[in-house]
Specification:
Length: 88
């Protein structure tokens, strides 16, 4: 399914981005990955840091494509036209 279709469904909205925004987001990814390697914290917290890095990397890809996730109630659950449910 295309990003344009996601926009049509109201899941994404177009929004201009900048090189500075992308650079900042990639900095967050790097920081989170670095945090995920700190052995002085619990495995749970390291996992949360790694998950945060993955989520931010995905958001960065959307922003680099000129999109942002549309804000709406129940934004963690997405029902796709094929009938499957994905939890974000």
């Amino acid at each position: 399914m295309s990003l344009e279709k996601w926009e049509e469904f109201g899941w994404l909205r177009r929004e201009p981005t900048s090189a500075g925004e992308i650079k900042g987001l990639l900095g967050i990814v790097d920081r989170s990955l670095t945090d995920s390697k700190v052995e002085a914290i619990s495995a749970d917290l390291r996992f949360i840091a790694a998950f945060s890095a993955a989520l931010t990397a995905a958001a960065t890809a959307l922003r680099a494509s000129g999109y942002r996730v549309a804000t709406q109630a129940g934004h963690h659950v997405r029902i796709f036209p094929c009938g499957s449910v994905t939890r974000w």
